[in-house]
Amino acid sequence: MTALPLRLGVNVDHVATVRQARGVSYPDPVEAALICAQAGADSITVHLREDRRHIQDHDVSRLLAVSKIPTNLEMAVTDEMVGIACALKPRYVCLVPEKREERTTEGGLDVAGQLPRVREVCARLTAAGIEVSLFVDPDPHQLEACVASGAPHLEIHTGRYAEVEGDARAEEVEVIASFAKAAHAAGIEVHAGHGLTLGNVGPIARISEIVELNIGHSLVGRALMVGMAEATREMISAMRASRS
Ligand SMILES: CC(=O)[C@@H](O)[C@H](O)COP(=O)(O)O
Ligand SMILES: NCC(=O)COP(=O)(O)O
């Protein structure tokens, strides 16, 4: 299959993590988002966690007011978050699982285990004009449920891929590639993200059915060394080099 274009969504959560460490007003994730857009990012991801450990409600509103590229709001499947999304109307919402005590998102959303609820939330968000994505592990059982949910997009959780090495990593690429192919064949737009870095993005960027990567922690870390614009440009180059 001819490779579809590959977009970069930059997740600016951890710019806010540095700000929240001191409870001050800087660094500003919205300012970072504008720099990423200028450097070629296609969208901005922010994860409004229930515990508000990094991104705050006002960050999402300010981002939506000033960003010229789409916002992808990651959020848990709760009534509070659905209310916020329906009021703010980002272009995209990605439904993710959340545990208060976790350091980061540990797995994909169990869509199959709560299909009626996910379907109802997808319908409410869609009625508000929002395109919904589901953050899932590359498990065929979850794909069936994603199709049944009515969500037009899904994002493959690449956390396991990022954690393992050697043969296990090569196997994980196979699992992700066949899941992406099946999801694309089922008419779902396929995204991927979590734990991706300049060093490991290549094999994932090479999967032709994946059209968007959402990358945050490693890119923000790299930006401490080279700046947000350069870190964004470096990632776009690495993605394009693997795609061609
Ligand atoms: C859902 C996901 O994979 C990322 O957005 C990640 O959750 C970033 O936020 P945290 O680092 O707070 O987990
Ligand atoms: N959905 C994944 C994301 O937005 C970024 O994850 P990470 O690069 O911060 O691990």
Automatic annotation (TrEMBL):
Keywords: Cytoplasm, Pyridoxine biosynthesis, Transferase. 3-amino-2-oxopropyl phosphate binds at residues 11, 22, 195, 216-217. CDD domains: PNPsynthase. Pathway: Cofactor biosynthesis; pyridoxine 5'-phosphate biosynthesis; pyridoxine 5'-phosphate from D-erythrose 4-phosphate: step 5/5. It holds the Pfam family PdxJ. 1-deoxy-D-xylulose 5-phosphate binds at residues 13-14, 49, 54, 104. The active site is at residues 47, 74, 194. Coiled coil: none annotated. Catalyzes the complicated ring closure reaction between the two acyclic compounds 1-deoxy-D-xylulose-5-phosphate (DXP) and 3-amino-2-oxopropyl phosphate (1-amino-acetone-3-phosphate or AAP) to form pyridoxine 5'-phosphate (PNP) and inorganic phosphate. Homooctamer; tetramer of dimers. Belongs to the PNP synthase family. This is Pyridoxine 5'-phosphate synthase. It comes from Hydrocarboniphaga effusa AP103. The lineage of its organism: Bacteria, Pseudomonadati, Pseudomonadota, Gammaproteobacteria, Nevskiales. The gene is pdxJ.
